[in-house]
Amino acid sequence: MADTKKPGSPTGEPLYLSVGFLRRPHGVRGEIIMDLHTDFPERMKKGRRLFVGEDYKPVTLTSVRPYKTGMLVKFENIDTPEEAGMFRNQWVYVLAKDVPLPEGQHYKHELLGLRVVDEDGKPLGELVEILETGANDVYVVAGDSGKEILLPAIPSVILDLDFERGILKVHLLDGLIDSSG
Asked: Domain 108-170 maps to which CATH number in 3.40.630.10, 2.30.30.240, 1.10.645.10, 3.30.450.20?
């Protein structure tokens, strides 16, 4: 998503969040297979407004049903496999403002830029990247000296998030090695 022409808010937050990826048409009624990329699959229901592809073409779900590890979806006014095929291999988005998170949860993009301090309040740097790994996310913290610290996003390391003040308090594990060697 390095394309500078993509829409976003003035503060850099995305206006759209990806929730799925369309694979191929299925059957003869205009359904298409969608891989899910959301923690809230229950929000994918009839009447839901979505946006497809790089141009964010607005579509409305008219049917949704489970299919293997994803779902079969059908959009309004798409009634044939050929019409559904126009959406093949494209991302599906929702407007970020339409999908609030539960109290106390934050989107990853909202964490970027937080000041990171250790448990004594000593500044460590700024959270500049979040790496998604199989077990847990890893926070990349860039220090003033240019060195990076990699922090696993686990409860024993992430002690407190003060979102109002923009501070993430962490516990450095023994033997922590910075990524610059």
From this structure: 2.30.30.240
